[in-house]
Amino acid sequence: MDAVVAAHRKPKQNPLAGPAARTAATLALASAATATAFEGGAHAEPALTPAQIKAKVDQLYQEAEAAAEKHNGAQETTAKARRELDQLRDQAARKTEKLNASRDRLGSFATAQYRAAGMDAGMQLALTSDPDEYLERAELAGRVGELQAGAIAGVHRQLVEIGQLKARAEERVETLRARQSDLARHKTTARDKLAAARRMLDRLTAEQRGAYEGVAAGESSGAAAAASAPAQTSAQTPAESTPKAADSRAAQAVSYAYGALGKPYVWGATGPSSFDCSGLTQAAWRSAGVSLPRTTYTQINAGRRVTRSQLAPGDLVFFYSGVSHVGIYIGNGQMIHAPRPGDAVRIAPIDQMPFAGATRPA
């Protein structure tokens, strides 16, 4: 019995003590290191070359600009819907005033009718001392009755018209709400894309940033004459070798674009101190007395389409499959455009981006 108790009280040996414990720990660390390695390999982004970084950043900027142009379009339709709604409300208010006046006239008819209803028409004839006077009054009463019937019909018509105006106003309210929702969505998309581009650039080391900027500069080396354009003053004019504009209005638009060189890109801006891409082209042609729509995808349909071989200074040149960027052609394969946030209005080759088409405003 004592032996049994002694055996029971004897401390149990830890299976993970001594050499066994060291072996298990080694295996666990090795296993954890392997798992970490696999996990890191699954989530770590491969190192990108400067050219790849630039391509990603450019894509984000292009997507941001596409969303910004949609925002500009939604902003334009929002303003139009708000103007239409105000007009409908003004019309309804005027018609309501007219309706109230018509109702006042009906009230006068009703009062007169009430006062005259106290005596039967036959009794009035029997008691009158002048039958001719009675007949004149009866004729007048008949005309009053016709006027009353017309007034009632007019009130009914006005009620219908006011109801139709209110229904149209409600439709404009719904349109306005939808456009405001579009505004918020496109604005959020554009800001998210811009923020993603900034984050990507902010993560670059000084060495990587230098390499990135070197790639960007290298892509523009084909337009050496235009590369110094951002440092030029707004007083400069096109070189004498530049092809002539189609007419005086196109020449004025080009002159305005030269005057905008160096001014910053600001999303949604239409000048005169800052611009986005379609804001610049709109302002340039507005200075020549031509009204262009607000967005790239509507400006491309404003005027006569021209082929690339037909380009003349003043023509609008569009880029990307979604027609999300525009510049104003100045000749010799060059354009003036507002590139993107953080940049300024500059001269650039039209080969810098995927060409989508061109139009000549009229």
Q: Explain this structure to me?
A:
This protein has 362 residues and is of the alpha+beta class. The chain has 2 domains: 50-202, Helix Hairpins; 229-360, endopeptidase domain like (from Nostoc punctiforme) (endopeptidase fold (from Nostoc punctiforme)), CATH 3.90.1720.10. The protein has 10 helices and 6 strands, in the order ααααααααααββββββ. A 6-stranded antiparallel β-sheet has the order 1-6-2-3-4-5. Helix 3 (50-116) packs antiparallel against helix 5 and helix 3 crosses helix 6.
Q: Let me know the largest β-sheet.
A: 6 strands, antiparallel
Level-1 CATH class name of the largest domain: Mainly Alpha
Give the topology string: H per helix, E per strand. HHHHHHHHHHEEEEEE
What is the number of beta strands? 6
The best one-word shape is: elongated
The radius of gyration over CA amounts to 40 Å
Distance between the termini: 115 Å
* Overall pLDDT level: 74
> Which strand order does the major sheet show?
1-6-2-3-4-5
Can you give me a brief rundown of this structure?
The chain is of the alpha+beta class and about 350 residues long. The protein contains 10 helices and 6 strands; from the N terminus they run H-H-H-H-H-H-H-H-H-H-E-E-E-E-E-E.
List descriptors.
6 strands, endopeptidase fold (from Nostoc punctiforme), 6-stranded antiparallel beta sheet, alpha+beta, elongated
Helices and strands, with pairings:
Elements: H1 2-9, H2 19-43, H3 50-116, H4 121-127, H5 131-202, H6 206-219, H7 224-227, H8 248-259, H9 277-286, H10 296-299, E1 304-306, E2 316-319, E3 325-331, E4 334-337, E5 346-349, E6 355-360
Antiparallel strand pairs: 1-6, 2-3, 2-6, 3-4, 4-5
Helix pairs in contact: 3-5, 3-6, 8-9
